[in-house]
UniProtKB/TrEMBL annotation:
Pfam families: Pyridoxal_deC. It catalyses: L-glutamate + H(+) = 4-aminobutanoate + CO2. It comes from Cerasicoccus arenae. The modification N6-(pyridoxal phosphate)lysine is found at residue 275. Its EC number is 4.1.1.15. One of its GO terms (cellular component) is cytosol. Belongs to the group II decarboxylase family. GO terms for biological process: L-glutamate catabolic process. Keywords: Decarboxylase, Lyase, Pyridoxal phosphate. Its cofactor is pyridoxal 5'-phosphate. This is Glutamate decarboxylase.
């Protein structure tokens, strides 16, 4: 949470850069200023302050889109004042929202006899919560209809998931059962599920492109495992697939891999449109396999904006821009455009991978087959783990933002650097990045040797004295 500053600090003056030329008053940093200022000056103040941020184009940490076409920027500006939730006021916007969900349902291979439904959200976190809430609700209904207790629901997922899964469990009071990673396998397979899944399991989560290594959970094996449980014990446990990062990569790069509605137990999927849907933040989508997978009780009919509007969301009002920009991208790129862009991004990730491997310092954790991420660890296992963190710091001096972290249990001994390759990351940038990485490694080696020599010298000095 952000802290509300104490009274004394309220009066800390704001420092101006170029806007200082036009200012003759001081402005408080932490309280709403008493008097306003000229629009141009306010604009300049905000713009100057943002110069302290990192450069989005050099941010290899995030999956989120940093560039769209000028036409999309124009649409963004023109539609920011339309509230998405005002369906009665803006029926055509709502019609487009429907189309976007429908296009995504088709992309996820919903079977012909299903009637997929869904909604656009602020991102995958909201979408995952909505998906899991629906499954919790259905589980509760099934149990109470059968006269069984409904007090201990659980959700099962691997330690490779994004924090929002844990958030769901805590916020919505569901026990989370986390399947640990293996020390040499960083995604989930069905053979790890025994002892985790039981009659109180509302859903099993699978990730399509894990945040940590970009690998895929083995959804097909989990699906088969749950089908067997259904036949043997009558437990009908749904899978929710988290396609936040891979949801737009899989259909275009490896369409033959089945993880979506082609698998019977996959009842809901979320995707972050603001990742490889190539739209600015924040938009995600949740899609249910069939209308019957979304309990009616969770859909609210809103009447106070005129007409009657069904609504299933955690948030309410927000700009319609991102939904419209996703529609723009679908029309503009078509499936062929997405296929070409995704293939290009994957090729660039592989190129970066090759460049980094040439330095003969790293080992790959994934072969960037499923996501355009490059995740590396040190080849020489005798090197201290902190080297990974020092490299991340050094890269920052060249402007690159590359996260360093340890994998979740039971692979916490593995420390990695992860680079997410997005559309803006060209081959030239890959080359420049590898060159900078080489310099960082050289510098690190130099510094470490200097340091060792220094301590050697001081030890010797100590002896002389
Ligand atoms: C990014 C991500 C999320 C969270 O998505 P937001 O759209 O940022 O809310 C969840 N799961 C995975 C696998 C992700 O990569």
């Amino acid at each position: 949470m952000k802290q509300v500053k104490h009274l004394e600090e309220h009066n800390t003056p704001l420092n101006f850069t170029y806007a200082d030329r036009h200012m003759d008053q001081t402005v408080s940093k932490y309280a709403i200023p008493e008097e306003g200022m000229d629009a141009r000056v306010a604009y300049q103040v905000v713009k100057d302050e943002l110069n302290l941020d990192g450069n989005p184009a050099l941010n290899l940490a995030s999956f989120v889109t940093t560039w769209m076409e000028p036409e999309a920027d124009q649409l963004l500006k023109e539609t920011a004042n339309k509230n998405l939730v005002d369906q009665d006021e803006y029926p055509q916007t709502e019609e487009i929202h429907q189309r976007v969900v429908s296009m995504m349902g088709r992309m996820l291979n919903a079977p012909k006899d299903c009637d997929p439904v869904g909604t656009c959200t602020v991102g995958s976190s909201e979408a995952i919560m909505l998906g899991l809430l629906a499954h919790k609700w259905s589980w509760k209904k099934r149990r109470s209809d059968a006269g069984l207790p409904t007090t201990n629901p659980n959700v099962v997922f691997s330690a490779d998931v994004h924090t929002c899964w844990e958030k769901f469990a805590r916020y919505f009071d569901v026990e989370m059962r986390v399947v640990p990673l293996k020390s040499d396998q960083f995604y989930m397979t069905a053979d790890q599920l025994d002892g985790f899944v039981d009659e109180n399991t509302c859903a099993v989560g699978c990730v399509i492109g894990t945040t940590f290594t970009g690998q895929l959970d083995d959804v097909r094996s989990v699906n088969d495992y749950l089908l067997k449980l259904k036949a043997e014990k009558g437990w009908d446990i749904p899978i929710h697939c988290d396609g936040a990062s891979g949801g737009f990569v899989a259909p275009f790069v490896y369409p033959e891999v089945e993880w979506d509605f082609r698998l019977e137990q996959v009842k809901s999927v979320n995707i972050s449109n603001h990742k490889f849907g190539l739209v600015y933040p924040g938009i995600g989508t949740v899609v249910f396999r069939d209308r019957s997978d979304l309990p009616e009780e969770l859909v609210f009919n809103i009447t106070y904006l005129g007409g009657s509007m069904p609504n299933y969301s955690l948030n309410f009002s927000r700009a319609s821009s991102m939904v419209l920009l996703q529609y723009y991208n679908f029309l503009r790129l078509g499936q062929d455009g997405y296929r070409r862009i995704m293939k290009n991004i994957m090729d660039n990730a592989q190129y970066l991978e090759a460049q980094l491997l040439e330095l003969d310092v790293f080992e790959l954790l994934n072969e960037s087959k499923y996501l355009p991420t490059v995740t590396v660890r040190l080849k020489d296992r005798s090197m201290p783990n902190k080297v990974i963190y020092m490299l991340s710091d050094l890269l920052r001096q060249y402007g690159w933002i590359v996260p360093a972290y340890a994998l979740p249990p039971n692979a916490e001994e593995v420390h990695v650097l992860r680079m997410v390759v997005k559309e803006n990351f060209s081959r030239d940038m890959a080359e420049k990045f590898a060159e900078d990485m080489k310099l960082c490694i050289a510098k690190l080696k130099q510094d470490v040797t200097d340091f060792e020599m220094l301590s050697e010298a001081s030890r010797n000095k100590g002896r002389i004295c």
